[in-house]
Amino acid sequence: MIKLMGVLMALGWLGSSSLVAAENKVIMQGWAEGGFSRSWQNGAAIENENQFLVDNLSWKITFPVSDKTSVFLHNAFALTGGNTAAIAVAGSGVTPIAGQGTSTYGAGFNTSAYYSAATSHIGRFYFTNLAGYIQHKCSENVTTWFGHFRMPFGMETLTERFSMPTYYFTDTFNTAHAYGWEYDLGAKMAISNLGPGTLEFAVADGRFTDRYYPASALRYMFENKVGTGSITPVASVFTGRWGSGPGDVGFSAGAASKFGKLAANVEFLYASQNLTFATDARTKAWSFYLEPTYTVDGIGDLSMKAEYSSQTVATAPAVTDINLGLGVTHSYGDGLRVRATYAHRGLKGDRTNHINDFRILVGTQW
Q: How deeply is 288 buried, as exposed, middle or buried, from its count of CB atoms within 10 A (0-12, 13-18, 19+)?
């Protein structure tokens, strides 16, 4: 569930930066999660693969320069059982960073599969920079970033992996990540109180695609109070790989809602690419998903993510599939959190051949 104020603070629009500058001290926040995973593919020669793993240890550091300017770093590391030479066989839709180890059926679910291209590794140990930028608050409603950051596209980039109710990204988000849309270098601006909500706009040099192409993204969202709850519509657009027009085109439309113990995210996400700019050469992918979460007293959060996805390559017929994720999360009063997750990619077996992933994860944040 997306909480708008939490999102604004996490993205640096509200809260920590000016407060830290006023106190004249550096502040660090982060989270860690690891545990055990079991992954398998129905009917595969290798029936299952099991591993203990440090799925992600992530930290954000804000260095205040003044009450309006700060430097921000977001780094992370992971120690996993591999990140993927055969993900294409596993059918996860994630394109691995070159040289990141061997594959497991569950490698596409590991957080390291979603690190930025600014990643290095020694064996199965991965270290990444997810953000590094100068942030400047131009006015009460306008904030700018210059450097390396996450592009404002879709709803699945609004929260960190640690805060996701379930543990898989949609097929179309995987496609956008593989195209290099998720992280880039450039400039970004957020304008709050623009109409009822906040507008983000970013321009980047496209260095994390296959070559340097200009890229841009725009996202708008606003929180609408409804009785004792809220509904937050979110819409975004992405363009990139400009040649004789944009080779990359994406858009999304969705909403996050919260009413008492029930929260739900719903979104339609589209991503397409045409590297040759030839007629009828575009690859098109789209996903529609529903992600409800219900809080049960004494147990925790019960979550589900159901997705219907489609992919069309040039003039070939569309290939569709269904993905499902389940999660149970329990938080203890001493800062410890435990969750169990299960995901099944490819319930139809058409886009993905029945990849299963089960995890028990222990985590904390500070």
A: middle
